[in-house]
Amino acid sequence: MALSRRELLRFGGVGASAVLVGAGAVSSGRFAAPRRIGGDPFTLGVASGDPAPDGVVLWTRLAPDPLAPDGHGGMALAPVSVDYEVAHDEYFRQVVARGTVVATRELGHSVHPEVGGLEADRWYFYRFRVGSAISPVGRTRTAPTAGQAVSRLRFAFASCQSWPSGYFTAYEHMSAEDLDLVVHLGDYIYERGWRWGRLGTPVDPGFRDEVFDLAGYRLRYAQAKSEGPLRAAHAAFPWLVTMDDHEVDNNWAGDTAGIGIDVYRVPAMFRRRRAAAFQAMYEHQPLRRAQMPSGPDILLHRRYRYGDLAEITMIDTRQYRNKPACEPGLLWGGCTDPTAADRTILGARQRDWLLDGFSSSNARWQVIGNQVAMARSDYDPGPGVDLGSDGWDGYVADRNRVLGGASARGVRNLVVLTGDRHHNYAADLRRDYAEPESPIVGAEFTGTSITSGGNGSDMNDTGRDLLAANPDLKFFNGQRGYVRVEVDHRLWRSDFRVVPYIDRPGAGVETRAGYVVEDGVPGVTAATAPSAPAVTPAHPR
Predict the structure, then answer these.
(1) Distance CA 71, CA 108 (A)
(2) Over the stretch 413-446, which tens digit does the pLDDT of each residue have?
(3) Is 455 exposed, middle or buried (0-12, 13-18, 19+ CB in 10 A)?
(4) Count of alpha carbons within 13 angstroms of residue 358, beta-carbon side
(5) Is the separation of the CB atoms in 283 and 18 below 8 Å?
(6) Which member of 16, 142, 385, 536 has the lowest number of beta carbons within 10 Å of its beta carbon?
(7) Are 228 and 131 in contact (CB under 8 A)?
């Protein structure tokens, strides 16, 4: 694929040729594997993502010493040629695509080959090779063609995985599910410093302080991917990924830093921090060349179409938003009016793109991959009002435009998927929360964290307050886990899958509750039929 001079120039800060060979955009001469690479170069596993009807993007990063303090993963300066194969079978007897990309130091020796020419709506297996080293085998699936009649989609969504908070056990169970896709809604890493690790163990010095530079962000991703259950879930299914705040800085907003060290609240310094964070994110996720960061900017809002059944629109609620209505606190009192017409969480261009997509799509279900709570969340169970400013409650005009716009464009079924809260919610979405009789126009399912917040509990004071104050909130749970979704043309079902503990490995999983949305009937209802078996075959032959 040829790129224009302008497209080449946008990568100049990283090194255009190095970036493009790593992304599979241009060919290159072959570069030998180092004679002494220092161990297994595939310690961070493999992944695939952003599936299309004719292909996917594959990912790996060479890192024989993934926690090396300099952030280079134990790799030398030289570029390395990385071969890949895609096959119909896991033994690679029926190879359908193969190629070579070059891993360079400028992108942390990560590669993102975009494989095309595949058949729609089918499973494939893939692997990488460097010299005599062969990666684990990954499995991926292409999307159905646009408009193709599809009977069912199964996927899971997750968020918020603080490494010192506990074990990533939930991913063990997710890997055993019968899924077509995984959606990750952000907080894949945490930028904050930690005084103690799991079970009160000492933390390596490289993780004691908050991170601001590329080496530090690389180490946080490498630490997360040191978890076998996470690597297994990446290898089992294609993923759609985005970010929330902790990939950069807690509660950041546009060019405004969050709650961090004062020097990084200077816009120029914060943009430098954003650039480092975005590069590290790209280096560690199965993202396409279109998501290649350009300095402090990255394009993350995009659409995933699944035949005639569903369209998942991933939005970005961080880069284009106004600063919080209350800064740095979380409450409204004495702050900027969160209902002001000029306040935006999406930015005008992204919001128009989202609404235009509603108008042009014929999918039965319109799904938004969203980071922060959209439904009104009053934390005061009494007559007062206590709303946060980091979620859509702090950007009321944009919420009204999106929900009202979906309704005005005749969206048949609107479902919003949300992370961030470390709780499970099922809630109705109203067109305008200022009007109590405003119609319900959609449903929101908020998934809990993988680990953030510790073991959690089924119910707590926060849950009791929220249920008492918000009649549109139908369900609350405070345990750890993920949400499994099954959708057909008639019914959407979300099962809240929870584990009893994460402070030690080995926890089982159960479906705490199931909630459904009926085709053409906005809002959520408790499921009456039992959910599917806890474990179903994950690897069809």
Answers:
(1) 8
(2) 999 999 999 999 999 999 999 998 999 999 999 9
(3) middle
(4) 23
(5) no
(6) 536
(7) no
